[in-house]
Amino acid sequence: MTTAEQRTGEGRQRRRRVDAERNVHALLESAKAVFARSGVDAPAREITDAAGLGVGTLYRHFPRRADLILGVLQHEIDACADAALAMRSDEAPYAALRAWVEQYVELVATKRGLAGALHSADPAFEGLHDRVTERLEPAAAALLADAHAAGEITGDVSARELLYAVGLLCQPVPAADFGLAENRRMVEVFVGGLRSG
Amino acid sequence: MTTAEQRTGEGRQRRRRVDAERNVHALLESAKAVFARSGVDAPAREITDAAGLGVGTLYRHFPRRADLILGVLQHEIDACADAALAMRSDEAPYAALRAWVEQYVELVATKRGLAGALHSADPAFEGLHDRVTERLEPAAAALLADAHAAGEITGDVSARELLYAVGLLCQPVPAADFGLAENRRMVEVFVGGLRSG
Amino acid sequence: MTTAEQRTGEGRQRRRRVDAERNVHALLESAKAVFARSGVDAPAREITDAAGLGVGTLYRHFPRRADLILGVLQHEIDACADAALAMRSDEAPYAALRAWVEQYVELVATKRGLAGALHSADPAFEGLHDRVTERLEPAAAALLADAHAAGEITGDVSARELLYAVGLLCQPVPAADFGLAENRRMVEVFVGGLRSG
Amino acid sequence: MTTAEQRTGEGRQRRRRVDAERNVHALLESAKAVFARSGVDAPAREITDAAGLGVGTLYRHFPRRADLILGVLQHEIDACADAALAMRSDEAPYAALRAWVEQYVELVATKRGLAGALHSADPAFEGLHDRVTERLEPAAAALLADAHAAGEITGDVSARELLYAVGLLCQPVPAADFGLAENRRMVEVFVGGLRSG
DNA sequence: CATGAATGAGGCTTCATTCAT
DNA sequence: AATGAATGAAGCCTCATTCAT
PANTHER family under this entry (chains A, B, C, D) (predicted)? Predict the structure, then answer.
């Protein structure tokens, strides 16, 4: 009996948590889409309507806008950082750097406006910068160091500079037909420039 | 009598025209300063207050925000385009390209947010893109062509790509201590990348 | 079997009743504390969090805010009314009146905002006024009548007036450093004024 | 000509200022009425609708709620303070004190909820407290000192305490049929209490 | 032409209350 | 009976834009 009751209790709690998680997920998905379309400053309503939820729900789970942005990026930032490890052992230093930057481009370029958020001075975005600093910067630094050690690149571009420069190059300019393809090409040129630093 | 009246009329008109021009100038100067400080989306009041004029005056001369931005950039865009000519004859092709890009960086980097405006899909900014296309693109194209002909660069980066890529690299990222100095360094790396395209 | 089932049923019911009472008690205690700190309009969450319960539980037991306020005050109102009886026989009339008012001050002054609720025109607070009328007013009236009969006070201040006047004097004015000590002193002056009415 | 132009200029400015002043006045009148009916926390819309103006106009002239409250009270506070002077010379000390308090009651009692604002700890209301401190407190202090000197009152109730105590006694309690008449009577009792302090 | 007061749409955010589990 | 996630109305405030003077 006691066991059964406890199970029921657990079941209930888990169920609620599952529903809430579904909503959180829906909000993140919706936010990702809306961010890509209208930028990270899009009205909250646009996001909640797309998710089929009330604004209150958004504010419950993501009190500040930065929390939502961070929520959208978190996993991808971590995955990207982890990927660097694999690439270091799989490829020659400069090739690994190139390959990893390509992956980083996917992360940043496919989210219109996130690059913008990344650049905000608003203290609310601290978490975002921290995450980048903690996870992405060491990854980039390691790849740069490898390539340096192998004599494949010169100059003194830091990991931080690389990340933000590539982030900037990944913003689309719709009015000038400057899109993802152009972003990629420009990043390639930039990475090429590291060799002749 | 008639003559006198006409003179009076003319005098007034001329006076007004002169006054109006003074105001337009004051607004452009003020806008340039405010854009640099608070970005191109700064409240209209910030600009008119700094110019010591009323908001109505701003709207009379620059009905849409894009008109004001274009007004601010116009002269500098033209000057920058004209400078290319001088550089072509004065320096070796790649050196000329580098030097001109440096000048272009001054144009874009010193106006926080203008780069952003340059990238907006808002149809209101058409005029801006047109100006860039008409004046800057030919200048950049000529310099690129020279360098290509001299075998100093390879690859197929277009003038338009060069302009927008450099424009993107010129945005500051205050939260990451990524400022004008970094902008310049990153542009250098990018231009270096043109050689190894 | 039947008996066993009934017993189980009763057991559960009793258990629930006991738990529910515990919750009601926890909510009243928490509400008392929160009312004292943040006033009677404090967010429901503040109360439930402090009680370690869900908001739903609060609404089950106290559907309207007034129900909660009444719940908090009920016992104290009754105790205060009962105290009047003891005081009447223990002390000289005016002294008894003073002593009782002091006790009433404790009731009202230590619950920031309750005085305010007491004064609301909101029909939801009817119950509160009723309780005051039914329990406190007769007590105050008796003490006033005694003092009158003894010739220790004059004037025609009614029991109701006394109660509400003292209630008003018991509100703190934080911005003016006007707190409980001042409340007490002002009430003393007021009660002194009854003599010279 | 120059003179005529300047006059026109002045006329225009004055005209605009006059219109704006009319609006400011309308807002203050409306606010006074709304404050009296719904308290000083009434929605901004209620005030602007009653004044026939847009919310923006309210915020232009009274950016913070406290500014509006202060605007409503300012003149009356000053007038009340000035009246004290006349009373000191016209009447016997205690009589003057009584008369002045009666006038103060008119100031506070006829504005439901202003008393509440007077008591807020919100830093936005500093201006209000300051005004009371600067204007009303000296007036009350002088009257109290006179009465003390004349031996007509005893005790050590300060000017500040008098002001806030009377302010508190002037709040109506609609649900208990405790209105302006009762406010006045209770204040009388309180002032009577100063004699027997 | 210049002015700046007025407008009000639009976005943000909080919190009382409901209700599925 | 308890829970707390979800809801959305309601109020706040800003600012682009208009328009009477």
Answer: HTH-TYPE TRANSCRIPTIONAL REGULATOR BETI (PTHR30055:SF234), HTH-TYPE TRANSCRIPTIONAL REGULATOR RUTR (PTHR30055)
